[in-house]
Fold this sequence. Notes:
By secondary structure, the chain is an alpha/beta fold. The protein has helices at 15-27, 47-57, 73-80, 92-108, 128-136, 147-159, and strands at 3-8, 30-36, 64-69, 84-89, 113-118. Helix 2 links the parallel strand 2 (30-36) and strand 3. The structure holds adenosine-5'-diphosphate (ADP).
Amino acid sequence: xxxxxxxxxxxxxxxxxxxxxxxxxxxxxxxxxxxxxxxxxxxxxxxxxxxxxxxxxxxxxxxxxxxxxxxxxxxxxxxxxxxxxxxxxxxxxxxxxxxxxxxxxxxxxxxxxxxxxxxxxxxxxxxxxxxxxxxxxxxxxxxxxxxxxxxxxxxxxxxx
Length: 160
Ligand code: ADP
């Protein structure tokens, strides 16, 4: 049984994240999407909102589960018997950061391997921070996020 953990902020989930999840679902027996609830970071969506959105978005995959976690990701993997940490990489710019993160996690637990999946070219330029900015200025984000996320973003920004 090969279990992978896909950790991230998912603030909010994008089509890029979902593409990675779809591919992970066909590679691993189980994929646990772990949403960071980091007290030190400020998110646009609350942990519960991000959890709720992601849960709806992955409902179609019987081998994908969603969790909220506020501690080290390697601790989640240890506790849940996952041997793989999955991260997506877009441009080379992502790689430096992701490589360092992988080294840090390896230092914490060398029995858990980080695996990188390169983005699908369609989602090369998608990142949550840019999408939030485009939405804030009224730009069209319908090709970047699933419809429920576009609606949630509009609602959130209307109230802000
Ligand atoms: P974090 O704050 O942990 O970087 P993100 O929600 O920004 O969380 O990203 C979670 C994971 O999804 C990361 O591994 C990131 O590289 C990956 N990712 C984000 N956007 C894309 C995309 N468009 N294509 C492929 N992977 C992506």
